[in-house]
Design goal:
Low-confidence stretches: none
Strand content: 15-25%
Number of helices: 2
CATH class: Alpha Beta
Structural class: alpha+beta
CATH superfamily: Beta-grasp domain
Number of domains: 1
Strand order of the largest sheet: 2-1-5-3-4
Order of helices and strands: EEHHEEE
Radius of gyration: 12 Å
CATH topology: Ubiquitin-like (UB roll)
Length: 91
């Protein structure tokens, strides 16, 4: 199942400067494992030491925030678009 993962600019150094990477997976966790196998080191930037998604990195599946779906267990379908969006803070 092919998924499009939109990579934010700060992480594109790990994707050979690609803004979009194709991955596989039936849920967000599997997609992250596929992304890591294609782009070694990227998972450490978006997951903590226990493998959980970092709080300051937001994930959207077809423009839906996974925090309001099923989190890392959110089901993915062929052709879905996953956006990785780092949170921005400031004043």
């Amino acid at each position: 199942m092919a998924l499009k993962v939109l990579i934010p600019t700060p992480l594109q150094q790990l994707t050979n400067n690609q803004a979009v990477v194709e991955c596989e997976g039936s849920n967000v966790t599997e997609m992250l494992n596929s992304l890591e196998s294609n782009c070694p080191g990227i998972k450490a930037r978006i997951c903590d030491e226990a493998g959980n998604l970092r709080r300051f990195v937001n994930f959207y599946v077809n423009s839906e925030d996974i925090r309001f779906l099923d989190g890392a267990n959110t089901v993915l379908n062929d052709g879905d678009e996953v956006s990785i969006i780092p949170a921005i803070a400031g004043g």
